[in-house]
Prior knowledge:
Layout: H1 2-18, E1 25-30, E2 33-38, E3 41-43, H2 45-53, H3 56-91, H4 97-132, E4 139-145, E5 148-154
Antiparallel strand pairs: 1-2, 2-3, 4-5
Amino acid sequence: MKKPLLSICLIFTFFAITHSFSQEMTMFLGVSGYQYYEDDRPLITAEVHSLLYDTPEAFNYWKKSRTFNTIAVSSNVVALGTTLAILAGKENKKAAGGLVAASLGSTIISVIFYLSANTQKKKAVLTYNKGLESNPLTQIKPLISEKGVGITLQF
C-alpha cells in the first residue's frame, strides 16, 4: 500500500516541477519613470537587463529602447539650450528665427523618440513574458541506456 502511494506522490511532484514557469515581468509608469516588477518584487534596471539578455528578441527591443531614450534626452538638451539662447536674445530685443526652429524641431524629435522608446520597452517586456509561456524551468526526460531505464530532471 505504501509503495503505490509513494510512487503516486513522486509522479505528482515531478509533474508539478515540470510545469513550473518563471515569473512574468510587469512594468508600471511611476513618478521617476517606468518601474519593473516580478510579482510583488521590484526589479532594478540591471536585473531587467540581465533577465531580458536571455531572450534575444526581447533584448533587441530593450537595446532599441535605450538608444531611442538616449536620442530623446540629447534632443531635449538641444531644445533646452536653444530655448535659453532665445530667452537671452530677447533681453537684447532680438530672437533669431533659426534658434526658434531648432528649439521646436528638437522638441518634436525628443517627443517622437521618447514615445518610441516607451513602445520598445513595452514590446521587450511582452516578448519576454511570451517566451516564458513555452519554456518551463525544469524538464523531465526519459533516460534509456545499456544499464537500464530512468528519468532525468533537467534545470
